[in-house]
Design goal:
The complex is a heterodimer of chains A (366) and B (224). Chain A is mostly helical. Chain A has helices spanning 3-30, 32-42, 46-60, 63-76, 81-94, 97-104, 110-141, 143-156, 166-185, 189-229, 236-249, 252-264, 270-283, 285-295, 298-318, 322-325, 327-341, 343-365. Chain A has one domain (3-365). Helix content of chain A is 85%, strand content 0%. With 224 residues, chain B is an all-alpha fold. Chain B is 75% helix and 0% strand. Chain B contains six helices and no strands. The longest helix of chain B has 32 residues, at 47-78. The chains are: A mainly alpha (366), B mainly alpha (224). At the A-B interface, α10, α11 and α12 of A face α2 of B.
Amino acid sequence: MPTWVRAILVIGLLYLFLVGVKLLEGGIKGLGSDFTDALFDSVSNPLSGLFVGILATVLVQSSSVTTSTIVGLVAAGVIDVPAAVPMIMGANIGTTVTNTIVALGSVRRSDEFRLAFTAATMHDFFNVMAVAILLPLELLTGFLSEWAASIANFIAGGEGLTFDSPIKGAVKWGAGLFEDGYGTVIKNETAVAVIGIILGIALIFLTLMFITKNMKVLVATRIERSLNAVLAKSGLIGMIVGMIVTIAVQSSSITTSVLIPLVASGILLVRNAYPITLGANVGTTVTALLAAMAAGTIAGLTIALTHTLFNLVAIAVLYPWKRIRYIPVDLASKLADLAVRRTWAAIAYVVAFFVVLPIVGIVVLS
Amino acid sequence: MVFDFFRGSSGPQGIDAVEAQIVQMVRDSRTVFETSMSAVFGGGKSTEANQEVSQTDQGINEAQQDVRRTLMMHASVQGDVDLPLVLTYMSVVKDAERIGDYAKNLYDLAKFGVDFEVAPDRAELEGYCENVDRLLGDAADAFEKSDSERAQHLIDKADGFLDDYDDHVQAAYESQGPASDAVARTLYYRFLKRITAHVMNLLTSLVMPVDRLDYYDEARDDRD
């Protein structure tokens, strides 16, 4: 496919993604307050919200899908910002499952597996540490969401509930076409709302999948060049490259998964891959920000900005001091040593941490 | 560096960069070979020449590592899009590096004191050297242009030299002359044979599938 055709395709997919967010938001509003109250109750416990975020992201293998959906839910008024914050943080943790699964592919060669598993799980440990520190602080003070709200109000130019953006107008038109389409065939309001939700989630999921796939083809050479340039570098440069690459492909999983074979083969040192991973954490928040632009509500923009601020603050807290900086790497290295000695431990870790724990957490807390 | 992502490409990238590097490795090996030959055929041996040979060979070794890194990066980012090429170049870069090694080994002969300047068979010795020199240049050109027809022609031509080298090694073994002459000729023809075989391996990447690469440095009977 010629590059220009692929570029137009990506723009079209991006538009459909934003339409998906709008359809989801409209569908949820259409279900009425009983449904939204029930949904809100189910995630009103912060830990429950955290586990929902982890599990939802593990299931769809994309934090962008989860966070965009959360933005839609917040924009529709189903969930308020404080309740959505733990879910967003859970999505951050859940997204690390992809590269951990990629690392399991090297299991037959112990030296490579040790490096691959370290590179994959340092991301897990960093994100868990970030949540362990910042979630209680956020619950006590609300500093992240309040900071995000003030930025959102600044961007929106006031303290209203909604804001106008060119994206919002354009997306509303596209979403209206869909709604008018199935609205003329189906007259039942609940059914129309359910179709809106299903179509919205399907569009978010599928368009992001194809955007990622096509963007990877479009920018693969640039990714190669950028990563080649930072192979022997550490710190801020790696972080910025990780962020740029992730924004380009709209997926932190792609960025972090590309690093696994490079680390496993010894071409990229674990400690040089670490800042690239942290940059990917920040880069992936751009998708939710785009979704917030389509939703056009201050609350939606606030939760999207909270996601960005959470990842930036996590870096600011955990990265600058050398004693703290490499704790996630060292913990990951210890876990990798165990995984090399007992392969079942690696599989047990993935299943227990990413599937069993969230399910048990949700069931118990609900 | 941070904004490399946004810049247009300056020079070849990815697989194209690998091809360019392998071509350069062969050309650098040719330089080493020519320096070695001028040392073996009459006094081209000097501290500067020795330094140049060592540095160029080191550069070739570093280029090999760089090619492998680039290939690994390419495979990690692009997935299986260029898998056959990645596997092929991972194999032939070793041949390109070995050419440099054997060219350097020929210089080592001069360092040991081998000098064919006044050898009675100088014309014959030099003739083979000129053949290999031309082969190196032609192989680099064919590889650069991905010219499979020319590559096949060069493989067929070079294949004929391999038996000649073995014949000369056999003749040196059976000669009644001084042992130093026999050893010098044996090593000389042996190194030329290895260089020729590795050039042929390199060229096979243009005409053969991945599973058939890398057999020209083995005896003819063992190739099939």
